[in-house]
Every structure is written in C-alpha cells, then in structure tokens.
Amino acid sequence: MSTRVDRLREEMRRQEIGLALILGHENMFYYSNYKAIIYSRQIIITVDEKRVSAIVPGLEEDHAKAHATVDQVLVYYEHPEKVAQGGSRKITQCKRELEELIF
Q: Quick check: helix, strand or coil at residue 1?
C-alpha cells in the first residue's frame, strides 16, 4: 500500500496539494486496504505528507482498526450518549482535526 500512497504524495507535491480526501469504496480500498462492512455512513480516507487517516462511524470502529492500513483511525458517533460515555469524538471534533490538517 505504501507505494500507492507514495505515488499519490509525489503527485500531491507536484501539484502543491496539502491534503487528499479519498472517497468511494474502490478508492478507499486501493489506498488503505480498508473495505467497510457497510457504506450507509460517510467514510473518508485522508492522505497528507505525514499520515494516512480513516474517518469512520462508530459502527465501523473495530473493523477499521483491525483492517485499515492507516496511521490513525478517527471515529465519530451520531449518538450523543456514546460520546458522553467516553467513547470517541463527535463528527464535529473529527471535522476540526481535519481542518487542522488542511490549514
């Protein structure tokens, strides 16, 4: 997988692109070896100069951590009670982290 990501990063540098958002299950699998159990929620793979990240819903958390070839898995929950239980972060927190990567 790293050769694919390395080639993507080369092209990103050439075009002065700081962050790639990988959407679509075929593209996600190509760059991260991750095939979601279900695609009813938004899943995004991000690639920047330093890391590859997967942003996944709580339903995919364990599966993504076990199978995705990424540096980090960022999980969002749609249900406030899950976040209140100390689970992971809300989608707004994932969005903030993504914005930090972009800017």
A: coil
What does the alpha-carbon distance between residue 95 and residue 98 come to, in Å, rounded to a whole number?
A: 5
**For every one of its 103 residues, what pLDDT tens digit does the chain have, with 9 covering 90 and above?**
579 999 999 999 999 999 999 998 899 999 999 988 777 788 999 999 999 999 998 888 899 999 999 999 998 887 666 655 555 555 566 666 666 665 5
* Separation between Cα atoms, residue 85 and residue 58, nearest integer Å: 13
Are the beta carbons of 84 and 56 closer than 8 angstroms? no
Coil, strand or helix at 75: strand
Judged on CB neighbours under 10 Å (0-12, 13-18, 19+), 69 is middle
User: pTM, whole model, 2 decimals?
Assistant: 0.75
